[in-house]
Amino acid sequence: MIGHGKPDKPDKSDWAPREICAAMLERIAAWLDEPPSEPTIAQLQSPEGQVLLDAIAQEFDARAAIAQLRAALAAGPASTLALDIAVDWTRLFEGVMGAPTVPLYESAYADDPARPAARLFGCAVDEMNELLVRFDVSLASQREPADHVSVELALYAVLLRRHDADGIALMRERLSRWVPALIELCRLNDPGGFHGAVASLLGVLLQHAPGLESQEWSHHAE
Length: 222
Fold this sequence. Notes:
With 222 residues, the protein is mainly alpha-helical. The protein has one domain (2-221): TorD-like. It contains 10 helices and 2 strands. The protein has helices spanning 15-33, 38-45, 47-59, 63-73, 78-94, 123-134, 149-162, 165-189, 194-207, 218-221, and strands at residues 2-4, 137-139. Helix 1 (15-33) packs antiparallel against helix 7 (149-162), helix 3 (47-59) packs antiparallel against helix 4 (63-73) and helix 4 (63-73) runs antiparallel to helix 9. The longest helix is centred in the C-terminal third of the chain and has 25 residues, at 165-189. It is globular.
């Protein structure tokens, strides 16, 4: 989704946790941008995918969230599950007769995070466009406004890989303003489902940013 310039020289003492966190955030960003494909679901269900989930659970103390995700992935074969998840994605994030249940844009949460509206192109779009320029990060696709959660998470992942402490702190503060409300809405409206489980995992990953002081995301995470 995002292309970016040359990263800073890494601090190898915590490179692995940061890389794992960044890679998983990019996956979640992609799953929120569009429904995961059948091959993606099959990969997550495979022994290799289960090893990845085990690593995430252990590294980030995400056992409860991973257990939820495993349960959602065990609901059927990849071919059937991919279709079911796509239907749920449309219901949650695009809406079927009216506004989406869970808006994916920061602008929608600007007035009251607890009561998001179906709002696009608020000040958050201009702010995010400025940040993309500031950090020399380009969008591979212009399909969504820059304040879409997938774009913000992808930028955060880039900054984690660069070990840009100022940029990481800035994006953590930005995400903390509105993503906990998005997480809570996903959990409430997709209990036991793939997106509810992914939201729980997102909360854990944002709480446990490697090498940084933890912020309070826990009441949305587990």
